[in-house]
Design a protein that fits this description.
284 residues, alpha+beta, nine-stranded antiparallel beta sheet, elongated
Length: 284
């Protein structure tokens, strides 16, 4: 019989060699994974995170300590991706993907955008990886939120509010995007490439300028181009709006009435309520 000192290593090596590779095992997570995406202007903002539940625990100052970095969720890093450069609470942030961390305080919070997107938890968090830090404040949620959520509120053409809501608190920061120049660049290219019988593209480009009250001379050129191809309700009303923006309400009313006539004569008839609304506004 061989000595035990020689047998044990041999058996251990045999067991290690015989063990199969670990199988992939997918099970439900206690903090399920979630994604949310929102287009603001022409910029896409996407988030990937895991949603912890309150589950009867003390969240703020307990499960999530004050004045310490938090992954803003559970499991792997919460990440946020911007397709274009943005400003966060007035501070510039380049396009890209970042880990979204927060440092909760009893009133003031710090929101951190870190280039380290591969972290798990915050044990390896390094302030040197921060790309941007901004300050914000917490507020009481309208109703308790059991499962932590990230959502977009206060949507506008050039901005949105990103809200973190969990338990009885909400924390928000404002994301602003560049819209005008990007949209104008896209519009100019589309108008230049439009087919000779396409009146809609130049009209839509002009309508954007009218809505944004910008580049009105260029809008006028696009409206003339649209009307030259096919005069109708929309481009005629566009001319009326441009005229009103330039301060001539009387002429704008005349053009709006012409647009109404064109809309009613169209086949099928066009809804002319918008023109009627403008006339009521311009004749007050």
């Amino acid at each position: 019989m061989k000595p035990a000192s020689r047998v044990a290593p041999t058996l251990a090596m045999a067991a290690a060699t015989a063990s199969p590779a670990l199988a992939q095992l997918d099970l439900p997570r206690p903090s399920p994974k979630a994604t949310v995406s929102q287009v603001v202007g022409l910029t896409t903002i996407s988030l990937s995170y895991c949603r912890p539940g309150v589950k009867g625990r003390t969240v703020w100052g307990g499960l999530v300590p004050f004045d310490q970095p938090w992954r803003t969720g559970a499991n792997e890093a919460t990440t946020i991706t911007f397709s274009d450069p943005v400003t966060i609470n007035g501070s510039e942030l380049p396009a890209g993907t970042y880990a979204l961390l927060t440092i909760p305080g009893k009133e003031s919070w710090t929101v951190v955008f870190s280039k380290d997107t591969a972290s798990w938890g915050t044990n390896d968090y390094k302030p040197a990886d921060d790309v941007l830090r901004v300050k914000t404040t917490s507020r009481r949620a309208a109703a308790p939120v059991e499962w932590m959520e990230l959502r977009f509120d206060a949507l506008a053409t050039e901005s949105a509010e990103l809200v973190l809501a969990w338990d009885k608190l909400e924390v928000a920061f404002t994301v602003k995007v560049e819209v005008i120049e990007k949209a104008l660049t896209t519009a100019r290219k589309a108008v230049a490439e439009a087919k000779s019988d396409d009146w809609r593209t130049s009209y839509r480009a002009a309508a954007f300028c009218l809505d944004a009250k910008t580049n009105l001379d260029e809008a006028g050129q696009w409206l003339e181009q649209s009307a030259k191809i096919k005069p109708g309700y929309y481009n005629t009303l566009g001319k009326a709006r441009l005229t009103a923006l330039r301060g001539n309400q009387a002429e704008a009313v005349t053009l709006a009435r012409k647009a109404i006539d064109l809309g009613r004569a169209a086949d099928p008839k066009t809804d002319v309520s918008q023109a009627e609304g403008f006339i009521a506004e311009w004749t007050k």
